[in-house]
Amino acid sequence: xxxxxxxxxxxxxxxxxxxxxxxxxxxxxxxxxxxxxxxxxxxxxxxxxxxxxxxxxxxxxxxxxxxxxxxxxxxxxxxxxxxxxxxxxxxxxx
Length: 94
What we know:
Layout: E1 12-15, E2 27-31, E3 37-41, E4 43-44, E5 51-56, E6 61-65, E7 69-72, E8 78-81, H1 83-89
Antiparallel strand pairs: 1-7, 2-3, 4-5, 5-6, 7-8
């Protein structure tokens, strides 16, 4: 069997943590690799503690939770990635 390695790509990523919320605390903004800006409302549960955002991926709506990394790929695809998977899969681009 032949083995394949994923081609090297550059993505935009921003961790969904309070320090990265917009100043109002009501939205989360990320800029894609092509410069497109995406803004998402932040949803809170009844306790106002658990915060999430909804991402429209290529196939479905996904939920990102606090600490997740929000990733925008070079073709505009968006998804959430857990901190441990992000750390294992990505490194800062030079």
